[in-house]
Amino acid sequence: MSEPGPRASRPNASSGAAAAAPGGRWHSRAVCASLPITTVAAERDELEAAHFSPRERAELAGRHVQSVAGRLALKRALCELFASVQPGVALSPRDFEITDSPTGAPVLGPLPATLRDAPAARRGRLFVSIAHSKAQAVGLVVQERTLDDRAEPAGDAR
Fold first, then answer.
1. Domains identified in the chain and CATH numbers
2. Arithmetic mean of pLDDT, 55-70
3. 8 A C-beta contact, residue 52 and residue 84
4. What's the rounded Cα separation, in Å, for the pair 11 and 155?
5. At CB < 8 A and 24+ separation, what contacts does 104-109 make?
6. Full DSSP string of 100-130
């Protein structure tokens, strides 16, 4: 898939509107989820056990509660995005694995088995981000694709 032109020609991710771009029209879908840090702090052990893999829990051991809240917010945003892309597929935050890149940026692991064969889920590219303050954590996922991607899969979502 070709890269879009300058940022000004990219779609407005918050509106999901398509915009003209060199090489085709782009479509983005963005989902944001947030969690109060106090809620996660009060239930950290239970939330980690219910929503995180052993690998994720090992990475989160000894980290601030904001890290746990940010990852959980991102997992909830992923569930919401894929519920809209692939209706009827039941997903939970535990279905997605989030790890850290060497720079600390969140990295989405392979898509859950229930989505791997879903053409709509595999099209385009995924971008993920986590942010937090002392009081709130936010997870954001953007699925970006050309409108041409509707015809056939463009490979695995990243």
1. 25-150 (3.90.470.20)
2. 95
3. no
4. 21
5. 105/129, 106/70, 106/71, 106/74, 106/130, 108/78, 108/158
6. E-TTS-EEE-PPPHHHHT-HHHHSSEEEEEE
pTM: 0.76
Contact residues for 156 (Cβ-Cβ < 8 A; gap 6+): 110, 111, 122
Can you give the pLDDT at residue 46? Answer: 96
Contact 149, 25 (CB under 8 A): no
Report the distance separating Cα 55 and Cα 36, nearest Å.
24
DSSP state of 18: -
Query: Side by side, which strands form the sheet with 125-132?
Result: 19-21, 24-36, 136-146, 125-132
Q: What is the mean pLDDT of the chain?
A: 79
Q: In which residue are the tokens 């950290």 written?
A: 44
Please tell me the predicted confidence (pLDDT) of residue 87: 80
DSSP letter assigned to residue 4? P
CA 60/CA 54 separation, integer angstroms: 10
127 compared with 123, residue with greater pLDDT:
127
- Rounded (to 5) percent helix, strand, coil in the chain: 40, 25, 35
